[in-house]
Structure formats: C-alpha cells, structure tokens
What does this fold into?
Amino acid sequence: MATINVYERYYEADLMANGVRRKGALVMLISDSEGGNIRYEAAVTFFPHKDEEDFAVSYDAYYNEILFEGKGRRSKKREEKLLAELEQHINALAEKAGGQLFWDRPIGAERRG
It folds into this structure.
C-alpha cells in the first residue's frame, strides 16, 4: 500500500487529552492506494507543543475520518476538492474531541506530497 501525505501543516490548537494540555496540532490529508483502489482520509493529531522547538507529535490524541474510498487512483481534481473541504472536516473532528484549531496561526509552512 502506498501512503502519501497529500497535505500536512502544523497549527496552534487547544485540547485537553489524557490529562495533558495540547497546544499544537498536525493536520493531514492522507492518500492510501493499492490494487486500483484509493482512499483519502482527513486526520489531525494534537500534541503538547511546549515551546517553539517542540514538534513531538503524540498519537494518543489522533482523530480521523475517511473522506473518499473507491476504485481509481490519485486525482489532482479530487485532491483540490478535498483540500477545499479539509478545514470543515478537521473542525468537526476537533469539536468532537473537545478541542479547537486556530487556522489563522499556522506553525511553519505547509507540505504537499
């Protein structure tokens, strides 16, 4: 299975999980493909971000949602549509977890794969 982070970027955030205050989040759009099938997933993981150098992502506060699954392969058109909707999906995941992302406060540049 080929897994590609189509998009990822760190943002300031706020979430209390497992007794630890999380002040950062890594937002991802992930593509998995195998045998003529493709799946896209929105994911966010919250981490403590104790200082500007702390990007130690913890996976005990990881939330995801499958956005598309079916026959096919990677599609720039589909990925642009999913990226346009990504903030909405991540906000829903964060809200369900009891947290919040601050989209206007990114921590570093976005990365695309």
